[in-house]
Amino acid sequence: MLLPRVIRALLADLTDTEVLEVSRWHSLAGEPLPDDRLHTRPPSQSLHPDSTITSILGSTGTPGLLTLAHRGVLTVEDLPEFSAPTVDALRPALTDATVTIATAGGSVSRPAGARIVFTAQDCPGRCLQVADCRCTAAQRARYLARIPRWLLARTDLFVQQVTVAAPDPSLPSLASVRDGVTRARERARRRWGTTPEPGAEARYAQAVAGVPRNAIRELDDAVDLGHLSIRTATRCLRLAWTLADLDDWPHPSIAAIHYILAGRQRAHQLLRTPAPR
Length: 277
Description:
By secondary structure, the chain is mainly alpha-helical. Helices cover about 45% and strands about 10% of the residues.
């Protein structure tokens, strides 16, 4: 998968504290260290429709894939093919970046703060080209409707198609983009007092502080009308702050918030269009 590899490549190297944390979980899972060294790059893991809930969450003695992807990237391939209970097992990681394994004697909690990338085909036939697809509109709609609403509310960015373009020397290098991501994370750390973890919830009052009133009016209206929950509005604001940090702006712009809301609306229209009878 191209997109998860690009996201991982853009992430900064792990800090010394993160290196020890990530290496510890992989050591507990019995995985050999890369080249007999500690993990210095963000980890990468993948889930498939046949992945078991135990492999995803782990057991009392062994970390699962959600924890092994902590501080890295987790790819969930062919999302509509997953069973509802398996998808629901991801909810704690998307809600508060943790997983909990219940036992007769109590429970064990572990971190699960990965950037989670969900992928899905447009139809159950897995056609690569629209012109080759023989699925009906109703079949496609029912297939995409298997993606639960609660998961859509916890997803920040929606990309309908990823294409590979020819190399363009005018574009910035991967190293320079990664440096920009590192600087953006430092700006976020200075603002929030800590680097926001993927999946960790933020408070609306915190996210809205410092944002110009005209930039949040549309979000407030959407919340008042019931089109967005406070949780989703907060995620939109946090993403807007990320865009501002990447561009070294003092605060999110109204254009950024319009972009985020438009992308969310397009995704909901695509995934929630009623199936023709």
